[in-house]
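Hey, quick one: can you model this chain's 3D structure?
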Amino acid sequence: MLNGMGTIQEKLNPAADAPALTDLDRIFAAQQTAFLNNPVTSAAERVTHLNQLKSALISYQDRIIQAVNEDFSGRAADETLLAEFFPSVEGIHFTAKHVKRWMKPERRWVNLAFMPGKARVIYQPLGVVGIIVPWNYPVYLSIGPLTCALGAGNRVMIKMSKSTPETAKVFQQMIAGTFSEDHVAVVAGSEGMGSEFASKPWNHLCFTGSTRTGRQVMRAAADNLTPVTLELGGKSPAIIGPGTPVNEAAERIAFGKLLNSGQTCIAPDYVLCPRSKIQAFVSAIKSCVMKMYPSLKANPQFTSIVNAHQHERIYSLLEDARRQGAQVFEINPANEDFSDTRKMPLYVLCGVTADMRVMQEEIFGLLLPVVPYDTLKDAVEFVNRRPRPLALYYFGYDQSQIDYVLNHTCSGGAAVNDVLIHCPQDDLPFGGVGESGMGRYHGQAGFINFSNEKGVLYKPRFNVTKLIYPPYGKIHRLVYKLFIR
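Sure thing. Here's the predicted structure for all 485 residues.
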């Protein structure tokens, strides 16, 4: 009798030695249940959620800036405001303003053979969305996908990077104080958490990071046939057109390369420059750096490399290039010693070859290879012989040359006569192509990406389709003659 009762109890209450649910399991299950209980949210509810997120972000601004600074051991507050808070708040505002219109069913054409009837596309929330965040822009690359997912009416769980623990801690507090756990939740990065997170049967998974890790995420997601958005980076070229003043291009390239010390997925990775203008470009970018940052080491406006591993990786790329014969120009305006810091000067590399790691791997730091070309066709062919980049930049004012470059190259996005700024344009889709990623988000593209775009055909009571029901005969052949032509 007692043994029998014990068996019943075991069925009602799991044994003490049974594996406990992790926070990830528990929150995931809670969000799945919450979505099943309330799968449809109105436009007004979604706008409320977005405005709550915006208010929380503004309220936590100073704490997050300080946390990011601690994680980087020196992250310029102005850069965090410019590159993280400004586009995040603008993106929330844009989505909240337009989401009601995006949610409306869209009319589509009904084939004449199937009239009368109506065709509509309706947008439904997918369910529970997972977001894996990198360390380089931990705020913007959390808020951006979260904004799109909330605008589409989903429940969301965010995994922060283990390389930015202080930011993760503050961000987790902010989200916990704004949303219920079964709506939006944040888990901190830890050893093994990434693979466990990617292996969940999400209704959609969004990952930002390296191409190598992106492949691993996609493999993990494949077991559950989880659809993925991958934003992976790569080697984004900046092409200086044949007749373009190098001073103008150098200033804009310098800004984009130095922002966050080059730790930006769409930073110009290398420059393609007319052969006759190489020395002029090197001189111009040196002048631009000295003007923007007269000193680097103690300058609070200049950001550090995030950790020792990344710092060593960048210098190993530099030493490999130097060892193989690259000509290295160190741009160090105040001639400072960087041996006791993770800050570093910009190194411009000339005479680079395809065998050098700096021309094979995404740099993600303050190295700038400059590659000469003879004709614009040569520059385009150089880009096209390599994996498709996340971004491409062209500097020039000749419209025929601009069209030639844009039409004969394939990149996730592009900007003409500037760098980076195509990314925070909320009415432009953002994402990669090929090895630089898949899927698009930001603005309406993000709303669609995180929605089920369901096509629906409505038929009235009168059923003209009966004309093609069996048994087949003369009427069917008449119908075929009318519509097959």
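One thing worth noting: Residues 84 and 140 are 5 Å apart (CA to CA).
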